Amino acid sequence: MSKYSASLLFLFFISIILSAQGTWVQKATFTGNGKTSATGFSIGNKGYVGTGQDMTNSGTNDFWEYDSDSDTWMQKANFGGGARTQAVGFSIGGNGYIGTGEDPTSAIFYQDFWEYDPITNVWTPKAYFGGIARCQAVGFSIGNKGYIGTGSGMIFPLSDFWEYDPLTDAWTQKANYGGGGISSACGFSVLDKGYIGTGQNGPGFFVQDFWQYDPATNVWTQKTNFPGVARVLATGFSLGNKGYLGCGGDYAGINRSDFWQYDPVLNNWTQRANFGGNGRVAAVGFSIDCSGYITTGLNGSNQFANSQWEFSFPIISISITGDTLIYSGDTTQLTATGSGTFQWNPSTGLSCDTCMNPIAGPTQTTTYTLTVTNPTGCSFSDSITITVLPILVTPTAFFIPTVLFGDGSFEISGLEPNSALEIFDERGRLIFKTSDYQNDFYSAGVAMEIYFIRFTRPNGETIKQKLCIVK
Protein backbone atom coordinates (compact mmCIF):
# COMPACT_ATOMS: atom_id res chain seq x y z
CA MET A 1 0.00 0.00 0.00
CA SER A 2 1.37 3.43 -0.95
CA LYS A 3 1.68 6.20 1.59
CA TYR A 4 -1.02 8.07 -0.33
CA SER A 5 -3.42 5.14 -0.05
CA ALA A 6 -2.63 4.83 3.63
CA SER A 7 -3.34 8.54 4.12
CA LEU A 8 -6.68 8.25 2.31
CA LEU A 9 -7.59 5.23 4.41
CA PHE A 10 -6.70 7.12 7.57
CA LEU A 11 -8.87 10.06 6.51
CA PHE A 12 -11.70 7.66 5.70
CA PHE A 13 -11.63 6.21 9.22
CA ILE A 14 -11.43 9.70 10.70
CA SER A 15 -14.59 10.67 8.78
CA ILE A 16 -16.37 7.57 10.08
CA ILE A 17 -15.43 8.43 13.67
CA LEU A 18 -16.55 12.04 13.28
CA SER A 19 -19.87 10.96 11.77
CA ALA A 20 -20.43 8.56 14.65
CA GLN A 21 -19.88 11.43 17.11
CA GLY A 22 -22.32 13.71 15.34
CA THR A 23 -21.53 16.96 13.59
CA TRP A 24 -22.07 20.66 14.26
CA VAL A 25 -22.91 22.98 11.38
CA GLN A 26 -23.19 26.74 11.76
CA LYS A 27 -26.59 28.06 10.72
CA ALA A 28 -28.13 31.49 10.29
CA THR A 29 -27.03 33.90 13.02
CA PHE A 30 -29.65 34.82 15.59
CA THR A 31 -30.97 38.10 14.21
CA GLY A 32 -31.56 39.77 17.54
CA ASN A 33 -28.67 41.30 19.46
CA GLY A 34 -26.35 38.93 21.24
CA LYS A 35 -27.77 37.95 24.60
CA THR A 36 -27.42 35.48 27.43
CA SER A 37 -29.82 33.64 29.74
CA ALA A 38 -32.63 33.73 27.18
CA THR A 39 -35.16 30.94 26.88
CA GLY A 40 -36.88 29.10 24.04
CA PHE A 41 -38.79 26.13 22.71
CA SER A 42 -39.71 24.53 19.38
CA ILE A 43 -43.05 23.93 17.67
CA GLY A 44 -43.09 21.84 14.52
CA ASN A 45 -40.26 22.94 12.22
CA LYS A 46 -39.84 26.27 14.01
CA GLY A 47 -37.66 27.26 16.94
CA TYR A 48 -38.37 30.22 19.22
CA VAL A 49 -35.97 32.31 21.32
CA GLY A 50 -36.78 35.28 23.51
CA THR A 51 -36.16 37.34 26.66
CA GLY A 52 -32.66 37.22 28.18
CA GLN A 53 -30.00 39.75 29.15
CA ASP A 54 -28.21 41.95 26.60
CA MET A 55 -24.77 43.53 26.68
CA THR A 56 -26.11 46.50 28.66
CA ASN A 57 -27.03 44.00 31.40
CA SER A 58 -30.68 44.88 30.90
CA GLY A 59 -33.47 42.37 30.57
CA THR A 60 -35.08 41.96 27.14
CA ASN A 61 -38.51 40.92 25.89
CA ASP A 62 -37.88 40.56 22.14
CA PHE A 63 -39.01 37.24 20.67
CA TRP A 64 -37.84 35.52 17.49
CA GLU A 65 -38.85 32.61 15.29
CA TYR A 66 -36.35 30.38 13.47
CA ASP A 67 -37.49 28.49 10.35
CA SER A 68 -35.28 25.43 9.93
CA ASP A 69 -36.48 24.86 6.36
CA SER A 70 -35.37 28.26 5.09
CA ASP A 71 -32.66 28.81 7.76
CA THR A 72 -34.01 32.27 8.55
CA TRP A 73 -35.04 34.27 11.63
CA MET A 74 -38.11 36.48 11.89
CA GLN A 75 -39.06 38.76 14.75
CA LYS A 76 -42.43 38.05 16.33
CA ALA A 77 -44.58 39.78 18.96
CA ASN A 78 -42.57 40.72 22.04
CA PHE A 79 -42.97 38.45 25.04
CA GLY A 80 -46.13 39.53 26.85
CA GLY A 81 -44.70 39.51 30.36
CA GLY A 82 -42.07 42.17 29.81
CA ALA A 83 -38.29 42.17 29.92
CA ARG A 84 -36.55 39.52 32.00
CA THR A 85 -33.75 36.99 32.08
CA GLN A 86 -33.30 33.38 33.24
CA ALA A 87 -36.92 32.45 32.50
CA VAL A 88 -38.23 28.98 31.55
CA GLY A 89 -39.77 27.92 28.24
CA PHE A 90 -41.36 24.80 26.78
CA SER A 91 -44.05 23.84 24.29
CA ILE A 92 -47.18 21.73 24.57
CA GLY A 93 -48.93 20.74 21.38
CA GLY A 94 -49.04 23.74 19.08
CA ASN A 95 -48.41 26.43 21.71
CA GLY A 96 -45.36 27.70 23.54
CA TYR A 97 -45.03 28.80 27.16
CA ILE A 98 -42.65 31.12 29.02
CA GLY A 99 -42.69 31.97 32.72
CA THR A 100 -40.73 32.85 35.86
CA GLY A 101 -37.39 34.69 35.51
CA GLU A 102 -35.75 37.79 36.97
CA ASP A 103 -35.25 41.47 36.24
CA PRO A 104 -31.43 41.70 36.22
CA THR A 105 -31.38 45.38 37.21
CA SER A 106 -33.83 45.27 40.13
CA ALA A 107 -33.37 41.62 41.17
CA ILE A 108 -37.15 41.18 41.14
CA PHE A 109 -38.21 37.56 40.61
CA TYR A 110 -41.22 36.70 38.48
CA GLN A 111 -44.02 34.19 38.90
CA ASP A 112 -46.18 35.01 35.88
CA PHE A 113 -46.73 32.51 33.06
CA TRP A 114 -47.66 33.15 29.43
CA GLU A 115 -48.91 31.17 26.43
CA TYR A 116 -47.79 31.93 22.85
CA ASP A 117 -49.92 31.05 19.82
CA PRO A 118 -47.67 30.93 16.71
CA ILE A 119 -50.66 31.07 14.37
CA THR A 120 -52.07 34.33 15.73
CA ASN A 121 -48.70 35.62 17.04
CA VAL A 122 -50.40 36.53 20.32
CA TRP A 123 -49.31 36.15 23.96
CA THR A 124 -51.97 35.30 26.54
CA PRO A 125 -51.45 35.42 30.33
CA LYS A 126 -52.13 32.16 32.11
CA ALA A 127 -52.37 31.06 35.73
CA TYR A 128 -49.35 32.17 37.73
CA PHE A 129 -46.72 29.54 38.38
CA GLY A 130 -47.70 27.56 41.49
CA GLY A 131 -44.43 27.94 43.37
CA ILE A 132 -42.75 31.10 44.61
CA ALA A 133 -41.27 33.56 42.11
CA ARG A 134 -37.86 32.46 40.89
CA CYS A 135 -35.20 32.38 38.18
CA GLN A 136 -32.68 29.76 37.01
CA ALA A 137 -35.39 27.07 37.13
CA VAL A 138 -35.74 24.07 34.81
CA GLY A 139 -38.71 23.39 32.56
CA PHE A 140 -39.79 20.79 30.03
CA SER A 141 -42.96 19.15 28.75
CA ILE A 142 -44.04 15.51 28.78
CA GLY A 143 -47.07 14.63 26.69
CA ASN A 144 -49.76 17.27 27.25
CA LYS A 145 -48.33 18.62 30.54
CA GLY A 146 -45.60 21.11 31.34
CA TYR A 147 -43.21 21.06 34.30
CA ILE A 148 -41.20 23.72 36.13
CA GLY A 149 -39.07 23.23 39.20
CA THR A 150 -35.89 24.00 41.19
CA GLY A 151 -34.20 27.37 40.71
CA SER A 152 -33.39 30.36 42.85
CA GLY A 153 -35.60 33.03 44.43
CA MET A 154 -35.98 34.53 47.84
CA ILE A 155 -34.99 31.02 48.92
CA PHE A 156 -31.84 29.50 47.45
CA PRO A 157 -31.71 26.86 46.15
CA LEU A 158 -35.19 25.46 45.53
CA SER A 159 -36.32 21.84 45.06
CA ASP A 160 -40.10 22.12 44.55
CA PHE A 161 -41.51 20.80 41.28
CA TRP A 162 -44.80 21.68 39.60
CA GLU A 163 -47.00 20.35 36.79
CA TYR A 164 -49.02 22.60 34.48
CA ASP A 165 -52.19 21.41 32.70
CA PRO A 166 -53.11 23.73 29.80
CA LEU A 167 -56.62 22.26 29.60
CA THR A 168 -57.50 23.42 33.10
CA ASP A 169 -54.93 26.24 33.26
CA ALA A 170 -53.90 24.97 36.67
CA TRP A 171 -50.68 24.08 38.52
CA THR A 172 -50.27 21.01 40.73
CA GLN A 173 -47.33 20.48 43.04
CA LYS A 174 -45.48 17.21 42.49
CA ALA A 175 -42.70 15.38 44.32
CA ASN A 176 -39.71 17.59 45.04
CA TYR A 177 -36.66 17.19 42.83
CA GLY A 178 -34.78 14.10 44.00
CA GLY A 179 -31.41 15.82 44.21
CA GLY A 180 -32.54 18.44 46.72
CA GLY A 181 -32.35 22.18 46.23
CA ILE A 182 -30.63 23.11 42.96
CA SER A 183 -30.36 26.11 40.66
CA SER A 184 -28.88 26.76 37.22
CA ALA A 185 -29.47 23.10 36.37
CA CYS A 186 -30.29 21.66 32.94
CA GLY A 187 -33.25 19.55 31.92
CA PHE A 188 -34.96 17.85 29.01
CA SER A 189 -37.58 15.18 28.40
CA VAL A 190 -37.21 11.95 26.46
CA LEU A 191 -40.42 10.14 25.48
CA ASP A 192 -42.47 9.88 28.69
CA LYS A 193 -39.80 10.83 31.26
CA GLY A 194 -38.17 14.06 32.38
CA TYR A 195 -34.52 14.56 33.36
CA ILE A 196 -32.67 17.17 35.42
CA GLY A 197 -28.94 17.33 36.08
CA THR A 198 -25.89 19.47 36.88
CA GLY A 199 -26.33 22.91 38.50
CA GLN A 200 -25.35 24.14 41.95
CA ASN A 201 -26.86 23.22 45.30
CA GLY A 202 -25.26 26.16 47.08
CA PRO A 203 -22.88 29.03 46.33
CA GLY A 204 -19.92 27.47 44.54
CA PHE A 205 -21.12 23.90 45.04
CA PHE A 206 -21.41 22.57 41.49
CA VAL A 207 -22.83 19.08 41.03
CA GLN A 208 -22.97 16.27 38.47
CA ASP A 209 -26.18 14.71 39.80
CA PHE A 210 -28.64 13.42 37.22
CA TRP A 211 -32.23 12.38 38.00
CA GLN A 212 -35.19 10.96 36.13
CA TYR A 213 -38.81 11.98 36.78
CA ASP A 214 -41.68 9.61 35.97
CA PRO A 215 -44.99 11.52 35.81
CA ALA A 216 -46.97 8.26 35.91
CA THR A 217 -45.67 7.43 39.40
CA ASN A 218 -44.58 10.93 40.51
CA VAL A 219 -41.21 9.46 41.49
CA TRP A 220 -37.66 10.73 41.04
CA THR A 221 -34.95 8.13 40.43
CA GLN A 222 -31.24 8.89 40.48
CA LYS A 223 -29.42 7.89 37.32
CA THR A 224 -25.79 7.73 36.25
CA ASN A 225 -24.11 11.01 37.08
CA PHE A 226 -23.24 13.37 34.25
CA PRO A 227 -19.64 12.37 33.37
CA GLY A 228 -18.35 15.79 32.35
CA VAL A 229 -17.03 18.22 34.93
CA ALA A 230 -19.61 19.72 37.27
CA ARG A 231 -21.15 22.85 35.78
CA VAL A 232 -23.98 25.37 35.80
CA LEU A 233 -26.13 26.90 33.07
CA ALA A 234 -25.57 24.00 30.67
CA THR A 235 -27.78 23.49 27.63
CA GLY A 236 -29.88 20.44 26.83
CA PHE A 237 -32.37 19.05 24.35
CA SER A 238 -33.63 15.67 23.18
CA LEU A 239 -33.48 13.96 19.80
CA GLY A 240 -35.51 10.83 19.20
CA ASN A 241 -35.00 8.54 22.19
CA LYS A 242 -31.81 10.19 23.48
CA GLY A 243 -31.07 13.26 25.59
CA TYR A 244 -28.19 15.70 25.13
CA LEU A 245 -26.43 17.94 27.64
CA GLY A 246 -23.36 20.09 27.26
CA CYS A 247 -21.67 23.48 27.33
CA GLY A 248 -22.18 25.50 30.54
CA GLY A 249 -19.67 27.03 32.94
CA ASP A 250 -17.48 25.15 35.43
CA TYR A 251 -16.23 26.21 38.87
CA ALA A 252 -12.99 27.54 37.38
CA GLY A 253 -14.95 29.98 35.25
CA ILE A 254 -14.31 28.14 31.99
CA ASN A 255 -17.16 28.10 29.51
CA ARG A 256 -17.30 24.50 28.36
CA SER A 257 -17.82 23.10 24.87
CA ASP A 258 -18.00 19.37 25.60
CA PHE A 259 -21.26 17.71 24.65
CA TRP A 260 -22.78 14.41 25.85
CA GLN A 261 -25.53 12.00 24.86
CA TYR A 262 -27.67 10.18 27.45
CA ASP A 263 -29.33 6.85 26.64
CA PRO A 264 -32.29 6.26 29.02
CA VAL A 265 -32.50 2.56 28.16
CA LEU A 266 -28.86 1.81 28.91
CA ASN A 267 -28.57 4.55 31.56
CA ASN A 268 -25.22 5.61 30.17
CA TRP A 269 -23.50 8.66 28.73
CA THR A 270 -21.52 8.90 25.49
CA GLN A 271 -19.39 11.90 24.60
CA ARG A 272 -20.24 13.40 21.25
CA ALA A 273 -18.55 16.04 19.09
CA ASN A 274 -17.76 19.22 20.99
CA PHE A 275 -20.09 22.17 20.45
CA GLY A 276 -19.07 23.90 17.23
CA GLY A 277 -18.95 27.47 18.53
CA ASN A 278 -16.25 27.08 21.25
CA GLY A 279 -17.33 27.39 24.88
CA ARG A 280 -20.88 28.55 25.59
CA VAL A 281 -22.75 29.21 28.83
CA ALA A 282 -26.40 30.14 29.49
CA ALA A 283 -27.36 29.41 25.88
CA VAL A 284 -30.74 28.33 24.48
CA GLY A 285 -31.23 24.82 23.14
CA PHE A 286 -34.14 23.34 21.21
CA SER A 287 -34.71 20.48 18.79
CA ILE A 288 -36.49 20.24 15.44
CA ASP A 289 -37.04 16.80 13.94
CA CYS A 290 -33.68 15.01 14.23
CA SER A 291 -31.51 18.10 14.75
CA GLY A 292 -30.63 20.05 17.87
CA TYR A 293 -29.84 23.77 17.95
CA ILE A 294 -27.87 25.95 20.34
CA THR A 295 -27.78 29.74 20.11
CA THR A 296 -27.13 32.93 22.14
CA GLY A 297 -25.38 32.78 25.54
CA LEU A 298 -21.85 33.81 26.50
CA ASN A 299 -19.05 32.41 24.37
CA GLY A 300 -15.65 31.18 25.44
CA SER A 301 -14.44 34.76 25.83
CA ASN A 302 -17.53 35.72 27.86
CA GLN A 303 -18.81 37.82 24.98
CA PHE A 304 -22.52 37.97 24.18
CA ALA A 305 -23.09 35.48 21.38
CA ASN A 306 -25.65 35.37 18.58
CA SER A 307 -24.23 32.54 16.46
CA GLN A 308 -26.35 29.45 16.04
CA TRP A 309 -25.20 25.85 15.55
CA GLU A 310 -27.04 22.73 14.47
CA PHE A 311 -26.14 19.29 15.84
CA SER A 312 -27.10 16.14 13.99
CA PHE A 313 -25.91 12.78 12.85
CA PRO A 314 -25.52 12.18 9.10
CA ILE A 315 -28.88 12.45 7.37
CA ILE A 316 -30.10 9.00 6.51
CA SER A 317 -30.75 8.57 2.82
CA ILE A 318 -32.33 5.21 2.08
CA SER A 319 -32.21 3.66 -1.35
CA ILE A 320 -33.30 0.10 -2.06
CA THR A 321 -32.48 -1.67 -5.30
CA GLY A 322 -32.98 -5.22 -6.57
CA ASP A 323 -35.12 -7.20 -8.99
CA THR A 324 -38.76 -6.42 -8.25
CA LEU A 325 -40.14 -9.16 -10.49
CA ILE A 326 -39.25 -12.80 -9.84
CA TYR A 327 -40.73 -16.22 -10.54
CA SER A 328 -41.93 -18.44 -7.73
CA GLY A 329 -38.96 -20.24 -6.21
CA ASP A 330 -36.44 -17.60 -7.30
CA THR A 331 -34.62 -15.08 -5.08
CA THR A 332 -33.32 -11.54 -5.46
CA GLN A 333 -30.63 -9.58 -3.64
CA LEU A 334 -31.94 -6.42 -1.98
CA THR A 335 -29.32 -3.70 -1.72
CA ALA A 336 -29.85 -0.78 0.65
CA THR A 337 -27.84 2.31 1.49
CA GLY A 338 -27.94 4.24 4.75
CA SER A 339 -26.18 4.56 8.09
CA GLY A 340 -27.50 3.21 11.36
CA THR A 341 -29.34 0.08 12.45
CA PHE A 342 -31.48 -1.77 9.93
CA GLN A 343 -34.84 -3.47 10.37
CA TRP A 344 -36.78 -5.11 7.53
CA ASN A 345 -40.46 -5.87 7.88
CA PRO A 346 -41.89 -8.41 7.32
CA SER A 347 -39.03 -10.83 7.83
CA THR A 348 -40.79 -13.61 5.92
CA GLY A 349 -38.76 -14.76 2.95
CA LEU A 350 -35.62 -12.81 3.94
CA SER A 351 -32.22 -14.31 4.69
CA CYS A 352 -31.74 -11.63 7.39
CA ASP A 353 -34.06 -8.92 8.71
CA THR A 354 -31.41 -6.73 10.40
CA CYS A 355 -28.72 -6.62 7.72
CA MET A 356 -28.27 -4.11 4.93
CA ASN A 357 -28.47 -6.45 1.94
CA PRO A 358 -30.67 -9.50 2.56
CA ILE A 359 -31.62 -12.10 -0.02
CA ALA A 360 -35.37 -12.10 -0.61
CA GLY A 361 -37.29 -15.17 -1.72
CA PRO A 362 -40.96 -14.53 -0.96
CA THR A 363 -43.52 -17.10 -2.04
CA GLN A 364 -46.06 -14.42 -2.88
CA THR A 365 -45.98 -10.75 -3.83
CA THR A 366 -44.63 -8.90 -0.77
CA THR A 367 -43.84 -5.29 0.14
CA TYR A 368 -40.75 -5.05 2.32
CA THR A 369 -40.22 -1.92 4.43
CA LEU A 370 -36.74 -1.00 5.63
CA THR A 371 -36.45 1.22 8.70
CA VAL A 372 -33.05 2.72 9.43
CA THR A 373 -32.46 4.27 12.86
CA ASN A 374 -29.57 6.64 13.52
CA PRO A 375 -27.77 7.07 16.88
CA THR A 376 -30.31 9.64 18.08
CA GLY A 377 -33.15 7.18 17.69
CA CYS A 378 -34.58 9.03 14.69
CA SER A 379 -35.90 6.65 12.04
CA PHE A 380 -36.40 6.82 8.29
CA SER A 381 -38.17 4.25 6.12
CA ASP A 382 -38.44 3.16 2.52
CA SER A 383 -40.20 0.24 0.82
CA ILE A 384 -39.82 -2.09 -2.14
CA THR A 385 -42.40 -4.49 -3.56
CA ILE A 386 -41.30 -7.88 -4.90
CA THR A 387 -43.86 -9.26 -7.35
CA VAL A 388 -43.86 -13.06 -7.53
CA LEU A 389 -45.02 -14.64 -10.78
CA PRO A 390 -46.17 -18.28 -10.98
CA ILE A 391 -44.04 -20.66 -13.02
CA LEU A 392 -45.73 -20.93 -16.40
CA VAL A 393 -46.13 -24.46 -17.77
CA THR A 394 -46.68 -24.59 -21.53
CA PRO A 395 -49.74 -26.77 -22.06
CA THR A 396 -49.41 -29.81 -24.30
CA ALA A 397 -51.29 -29.41 -27.58
CA PHE A 398 -54.62 -31.22 -27.66
CA PHE A 399 -54.50 -34.30 -29.95
CA ILE A 400 -56.53 -37.48 -30.30
CA PRO A 401 -54.67 -40.27 -32.13
CA THR A 402 -56.45 -42.34 -34.81
CA VAL A 403 -54.26 -45.45 -34.51
CA LEU A 404 -53.39 -47.49 -31.41
CA PHE A 405 -50.60 -50.06 -31.75
CA GLY A 406 -50.22 -53.19 -29.64
CA ASP A 407 -51.71 -53.45 -26.17
CA GLY A 408 -50.89 -49.92 -24.96
CA SER A 409 -53.10 -47.19 -23.62
CA PHE A 410 -55.09 -44.79 -25.70
CA GLU A 411 -53.12 -41.56 -25.00
CA ILE A 412 -54.87 -38.27 -25.70
CA SER A 413 -52.43 -35.33 -25.58
CA GLY A 414 -53.46 -32.16 -23.74
CA LEU A 415 -56.11 -34.07 -21.87
CA GLU A 416 -58.34 -31.85 -19.75
CA PRO A 417 -60.04 -32.95 -16.53
CA ASN A 418 -63.67 -34.04 -16.80
CA SER A 419 -63.40 -35.03 -20.44
CA ALA A 420 -65.84 -37.81 -21.39
CA LEU A 421 -64.94 -40.72 -23.72
CA GLU A 422 -67.10 -43.38 -25.34
CA ILE A 423 -65.74 -46.16 -27.61
CA PHE A 424 -67.95 -48.28 -29.89
CA ASP A 425 -67.09 -51.32 -32.03
CA GLU A 426 -68.10 -51.74 -35.66
CA ARG A 427 -71.47 -53.14 -34.67
CA GLY A 428 -72.21 -50.08 -32.52
CA ARG A 429 -71.73 -51.80 -29.21
CA LEU A 430 -70.33 -49.64 -26.38
CA ILE A 431 -67.11 -51.18 -25.11
CA PHE A 432 -65.77 -48.27 -22.95
CA LYS A 433 -67.29 -45.24 -21.26
CA THR A 434 -66.10 -42.66 -18.69
CA SER A 435 -67.01 -39.10 -17.74
CA ASP A 436 -63.45 -38.27 -16.68
CA TYR A 437 -60.99 -39.94 -19.00
CA GLN A 438 -57.49 -40.39 -17.55
CA ASN A 439 -55.78 -42.09 -20.51
CA ASP A 440 -56.79 -45.37 -18.89
CA PHE A 441 -58.22 -47.34 -21.87
CA TYR A 442 -55.93 -50.17 -22.89
CA SER A 443 -56.20 -52.26 -26.08
CA ALA A 444 -55.11 -55.48 -24.37
CA GLY A 445 -57.86 -58.07 -24.87
CA VAL A 446 -59.53 -55.88 -27.48
CA ALA A 447 -59.86 -57.24 -31.01
CA MET A 448 -57.95 -55.61 -33.87
CA GLU A 449 -60.49 -53.71 -35.92
CA ILE A 450 -61.92 -50.23 -36.55
CA TYR A 451 -63.63 -48.54 -33.59
CA PHE A 452 -65.58 -45.37 -33.29
CA ILE A 453 -65.02 -42.84 -30.48
CA ARG A 454 -67.06 -39.94 -29.14
CA PHE A 455 -64.96 -37.53 -27.08
CA THR A 456 -66.62 -34.66 -25.19
CA ARG A 457 -64.45 -31.86 -23.83
CA PRO A 458 -65.36 -29.95 -20.63
CA ASN A 459 -66.56 -27.02 -22.74
CA GLY A 460 -69.15 -29.27 -24.39
CA GLU A 461 -67.30 -29.65 -27.66
CA THR A 462 -67.86 -33.20 -29.05
CA ILE A 463 -65.34 -34.88 -31.32
CA LYS A 464 -66.27 -38.03 -33.30
CA GLN A 465 -63.65 -40.02 -35.18
CA LYS A 466 -62.41 -43.52 -36.00
CA LEU A 467 -59.79 -45.42 -33.99
CA CYS A 468 -57.86 -48.25 -35.62
CA ILE A 469 -56.35 -50.78 -33.26
CA VAL A 470 -53.42 -52.58 -34.90
CA LYS A 471 -51.71 -55.63 -33.39
Task: Briefly say what this structure is.
The protein has 471 residues and is mainly beta. Strands 12, 13, 14, 15 and 16 form a five-stranded antiparallel β-sheet that branches. It has a five-stranded mixed β-sheet with strand order 38-42-41-39-40, with no helix packed on it. A four-stranded antiparallel β-sheet has the order 1-29-27-26.
**Main beta sheet strand tally, sense and closure:** 5 strands, antiparallel
Strand content: 35-45%
Q: Which outline best applies?
A: rod-shaped
Helix vs. strand class: mainly beta
Mean pLDDT: 90
Radius of gyration: 38 Å
Low-confidence stretches: 1-19
Amino-to-carboxy terminus distance:
83 Å
The tally of strands reads 42
Count of alpha and pi helical runs: 1
Q: Bin the helical content.
A: under 10%
How would you describe this protein?
By secondary structure, this protein is mainly β. The strands form 12 sheets. Strands 12, 13, 14, 15 and 16 form a 5-stranded antiparallel sheet that branches. The chain has a 5-stranded mixed sheet with strand order 38-42-41-39-40, with no helix packed on it. It has a 4-stranded antiparallel sheet with strand order 1-29-27-26. Strand 2 and strand 3 (46-50) form a beta hairpin. Mean pLDDT is 90; it is low at 1-19.
